[in-house]
Each structure stands twice: as C-alpha cells, then as structure tokens.
C-alpha cells in the first residue's frame, strides 16, 4: 500500500491533483483539490488510498490520515462507492460527518449526492460507534466551512461549481445557491466549502 506521496504539486484539476515525485507524476483524486491552490509548484505531502477494482485503478488523496480513514470506512458501507465517499469527505470536516452518524441524523446524510434514505440508514448501522478516533472532539452543529478572500472572480466561482459537479451535485441544486455565493468574496476553495455548507443546510 502507498501510505503517502510527497513531491512537487504540478497541476490542479476539478477532480484531482498531480504530484511530481522524482520525475513520476502521480494523479491523486481528492475530495477538494483546490485546498492545495496555494501550494502549486511547492513540495507537499498527501496521504493516499490505493483503490483497485477490475474496471478501475486509482489513487485517492487526503490532507490527513483521519480524513483518509473516514473515506475508507465509508467505502465499506453497502451502496457507497469512491465518488460518494469523496463527496461526503469534501466538506473537509470529518468530525461533522461523524457527529451526524453518531446522532443518527439521516436528514443531513441524505443531502450528500447519491445518498438516499436507505444508504443513510446503512451508513449509520455500519459505522455508528466505530469511529472512535473522531468522537473525542465532536463539533457544534454550525461548522465554519469557508475562508474569506479579497479578490473574488466569476472564474473562481465557475471553477468551484465544476468541482461540485464532479462530486455529483447537479445544476438544479447549484443554481439555487449561486445567488448567495455571488455575494461572497472567496477563492475557489472557499466557494466550494461555502457551497457545501449551503447545500447541507437545505
């Protein structure tokens, strides 16, 4: 298993980042690639999960082992694939997801793309009480999921929406929150986090 990749961040896409390690480019699919936008052409370390199936081999990347662990736990739930697990991890707040599981908050879990009531119930049945590492500091119900920025652009908002579509959110959902986001002054990462905050509150 590849525990992590450390190298120069060469590219950022809506779904993945590319890290150069001694001339070999690793494509790592991330919940929110734009959290690394200030690290472009710098040396970074990303913790990885090597996903192998008959029809797909991919490396998924995470900023911490804790977030990777949540992703791996979600993959073990019937009805959750890599795309769905990434969407759940995309808020960058694993503790909030765990809080919803521990409190059996099906309504919050069904706000993630691809998670219906049956899958939400399965997540709770399979994972409640099994995420000890996350329960030491359970958060309040109002997460702070965005970082302000002083020079917003429509391009940044459009890029953020493309990243959200890659996670499984549809135009109908995104159009409802776009007016509120256009009032903000954020970078791509900030728009994504704020959008997720709004989507999870709906």
Largest sheet: 5 strands, mixed, barrel
Give, in order, the helices and strands.
EEEEEHHHHHHHH
Question: What structural category characterises the helix and strand content?
Answer: alpha+beta
- Strand content bin: 15-25%
Helix content: 40-55%
CATH class of the largest domain, named Mainly Alpha
Taken from the alpha-carbon principal axes, the silhouette is globular
| Biggest sheet strand line-up | 1-2-3-5-4
* Fourth-tier CATH superfamily name of the largest domain: 5' to 3' exonuclease, C-terminal subdomain
Instruction: Give the domain tally.
Output: 3
CATH architecture of the largest domain: Orthogonal Bundle
CATH topological fold name of the largest domain: DNA polymerase, domain 1
Number of DSSP E strands? 5
Average pLDDT across residues?
A: 87
Spans of at least 5 consecutive residues whose pLDDT stays below 50 are 137-152
Put simply, the count of helices is 8
Using only CA atoms, what is the Rg?
Answer: 17 Å
Separation of the first and last Cα atoms? 39 Å
């Amino acid at each position: 298993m590849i525990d992590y990749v450390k190298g120069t961040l060469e590219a950022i896409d809506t779904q993945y980042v590319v890290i150069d390690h001694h001339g070999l480019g690793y494509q790592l699919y991330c919940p929110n690639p734009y959290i690394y936008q200030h690290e472009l052409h710098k040396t970074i370390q990303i913790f990885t999960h090597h996903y192998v199936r008959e029809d797909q081999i991919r490396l998924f990347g995470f900023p911490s082992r804790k977030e990777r662990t949540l992703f791996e736990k979600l993959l073990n739930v019937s009805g959750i694939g890599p795309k769905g697990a990434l969407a759940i991890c995309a808020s960058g707040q694993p503790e909030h997801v765990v809080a919803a599981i521990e409190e059996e908050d099906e309504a919050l879990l069904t706000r993630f793309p691809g998670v219906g009531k049956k899958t939400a119930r399965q997540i709770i049945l399979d994972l409640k009480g099994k995420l000890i590492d996350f329960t030491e500091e359970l958060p309040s119900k109002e997460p702070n999921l965005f970082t302000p920025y002083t020079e917003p652009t429509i391009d940044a908002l459009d890029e953020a929406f493309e990243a959200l579509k890659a996670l499984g959110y549809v135009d109908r959902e995104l159009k409802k929150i776009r007016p509120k986001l256009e009032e903000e002054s954020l970078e791509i990462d900030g728009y994504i986090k704020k959008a997720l905050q709004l989507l999870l509150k709906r």
